[in-house]
Design goal:
By secondary structure, the chain is an alpha+beta fold. It has helices at 10-37, 42-51, 56-63, 70-81, 83-102, 105-116, 234-250, 254-292, 304-333, 341-363, 365-368, 375-382, 392-404; strands at 117-118, 121-122, 125-128, 144-148, 153-164, 171-177, 187-192, 199-204, 215-226, 294-295, 298-299. The model has no long low-confidence stretch (mean pLDDT 95). Keywords: FAD, Flavoprotein, Oxidoreductase.
Length: 409
């Protein structure tokens, strides 16, 4: 019988320590500067590329860790370093994984290297799904992809919003409607190659947190791309659409819906791990501060009111990590997410990050409210986790529907 262990193996510990070293030595010292500049930290990405952290290989190695803990471990350490810079580093990976998961061998070989560039000339990639009228409600997507059979080209039109690396990416992955009758099942993903005419950056958002990560609108005006840029290829798409029409006619859509749900359940723990990283970072600063700041002749941690907060912070962080690890393990072990455990982990960890970073600001008093100390930035950064990759309300909706089997609205 397999031995049960909660310990990372030696290889995992080595990787974790290596990433932690990069986060501590390269990301942390650069965090405040790039937050103020509100710009993509190209030199830090380049540094990550040089040591091998910014590469598909790195991402793939963590992704294929048989215990499932490679990705959450990497995310926690990078986001412990700094959330904005970390998102700039992993944003490309999120787009690349879409190509690896759904693309053909040829698409993977052609486009992934162009997403990352080289350590001397780094590039980034963007994943563009959200639209001004289609955030939580993905089914309201309007961006259209129409096939021009004569030229074997797809023509994309629409406006994407909130795209991480949108407009500055070398390669954009764009989700668009190919069959409006089928709702979300009529969506497909496309690769927009570098310098394609018609794709432009709309407004770049000035944000509350993760300001080192570039977020912008992407406008698509008669963007023509070769037929070969449809992820997975036309044959596979036609088969999928035919099956969806057949199911719609026969009244069964459950299996397709469950397949999409399973994908989200497997990817959400990664966002939970990011939140754990930010929460842990703020907790560590608060713990150190509480032990050294003296008021009324003793360290402030000598007050139960402060010490108990730290005890709760640590307990919640560890609980969040356990939910993330459970869901990540379930994903690789092929266990069904019968209670939406992936969504649970994202919901809990993201709420914990918001709470813990707010408590850290409080424990640092006036200093916590200034940019002299990092908890102010961590508190702003943490607000993103309850919003992207499905808001907390959407996670609750998914969990409630899954545990009840009811169509809760
Ligand atoms: C910094 C940042 C980076 C992002 N990066 C990307 C990216 O790279 N690619 C991409 O495609 N998208 C990206 N997003 C978009 C992100 O996924 C969306 O913002 C998110 O899905 C929420 O959509 P929305 O902003 O339109 O909010 P809305 O859907 O309008 O929601 C507004 C509020 O209403 C609530 N609400 C909505 N529906 C319900 C319901 N049925 N029940 C209860 N409450 C509900 C929500 O929970 C929320 O509180 C990013 C967003 C941000 C802010």
């Amino acid at each position: 019988m397999a031995e049960f262990t909660m310990e990372l193996n030696d290889d995992q510990k080595q990787v974790r320590d290596w990433i932690h070293g990069f986060a501590a030595d390269v990301m942390r010292p650069a965090a405040a500067e790039w937050d103020e500049r509100e710009e993509t930290p190209w030199p830090v990405i380049q540094e990550a590329a040089k040591v091998g952290i910014y590469s598909l290989d790195f991402y793939a190695q963590q992704f294929f860790d048989p215990t499932g803990l490679g990705i959450p471990m990497a995310m926690e350490e990078l986001f412990w370093g700094d959330a904005g810079i970390a998102l700039s580093i992993v944003g490309t990976g999120l787009a690349a994984i879409g190509v690896v998961a759904n693309g053909t061998e040829e698409q993977i070989g052609t486009w992934i290297p162009q997403m990352y560039g080289t350590p001397d000339d780094v590039k980034v990639a963007a994943f563009c799904s959200s639209e001004p009228d289609a955030g939580s409600d993905v089914g309201s997507m309007r961006t259209r992809a129409v096939y021009d059979r004569a030229k074997d080209e797809w023509v994309l039109n629409g406006t994407k919003t909130w795209a991480t690396n949108g407009g500055i990416a070398n390669v954009h992955i764009v989700v668009a409607v190919v069959d409006p009758e089928l709702g979300t099942k009529g969506h497909a993903s496309f690769i927009v190659p570098p310098n394609t005419p018609g794709l432009s950056q709309g407004q770049k958002f000035k944000k509350h947190g993760i300001r080192a990560s570039h977020t912008a609108e992407v406008v698509l005006e008669d963007v023509r791309i070769p037929g070969s840029c449809l992820l997975g290829g036309k044959e596979k798409l036609d088969e999928r659409l035919a099956r969806a029409h057949e199911r719609a006619r026969s009244g069964g859509g459950e299996r397709v819906k469950n397949a999409a749900m399973a994908t989200f359940e497997a990817s959400r723990p990664a966002v939970g791990a990011m939140a754990v990283g930010t929460a842990r970072a703020a907790y560590e600063v608060a713990l150190d501060y509480a032990k050294t700041r003296t008021q009324f002749g003793r360290p402030i941690i000598d007050n139960q009111g402060v010490a108990f907060q730290l005890a709760d912070m640590r307990t919640q962080i560890d609980a969040a990590r356990l939910l993330v690890w459970r869901a990540s393990w379930m994903a690789v072990a092929g266990r069904p997410f019968e209670s939406a455990e992936g969504s649970m982990s994202k919901l809990f960890a993201s709420e914990v990050a918001k709470k813990v970073t707010a408590q850290a600001v409080q424990i640092l008093g006036g200093n916590g409210f200034t940019r002299e100390y990092p908890v102010e930035r961590m508190h702003r950064d943490s607000a993103i986790y309850t919003i992207f990759e499905g808001t907390s309300e959407i996670q609750r909706l998914v969990i409630a529907r899954t545990i009840s089997g009811m169509p809760i609205r």
